[in-house]
Amino acid sequence: xxxxxxxxxxxxxxxxxxxxxxxxxxxxxxxxxxxxxxxxxxxxxxxxxxxxxxxxxxxxxxxxxxxxxxxxxxxxxxxxxxxxxxxxxxxxxxxxxxxxxxxxxxxxxxxxxxxxxxxxxxxxxxxxxxxxxxxxxxxxxxxxxxxxxxxxxxxxxxxxxxxxxxxxxxxxxxxxxxxx
Length: 180
Fold this sequence. Notes:
mainly beta; two-stranded antiparallel ribbon
């Protein structure tokens, strides 16, 4: 999984500070790259809190995410900790994401210290989410590849896949004529 955020261009004069939000991922042992794209808008009156709104086939899919911590781990590699509200309507539950610029994530020492600090906040919800943190498998298939360029097909979310845990199946949708 890779997350790429960049200023939205051209910028929106009525909603300054918007970012393009692109998450790309693959299923284990599969070379096909799936995308999820939307727009992040700064949440009014807050710092480091954004409202995500999907575009194209994900129009109406939204949530709010907050950057809780960021910096470098004990090895000097960049990482960040994000809290996400549940995805509406009826999507993924609330979660904690720990993302890193290096394969394998932040150092074990930094990971443990970060999770201990979250537990130390005294929030039942965040403490519960710490218990759900799992490493996302990485088979190295994208090692050395450049970031995905988000074209019109990407912005329409034509290569999107969703895992439905209640039915234990993957739902894939594509735009007509888009099989690349």
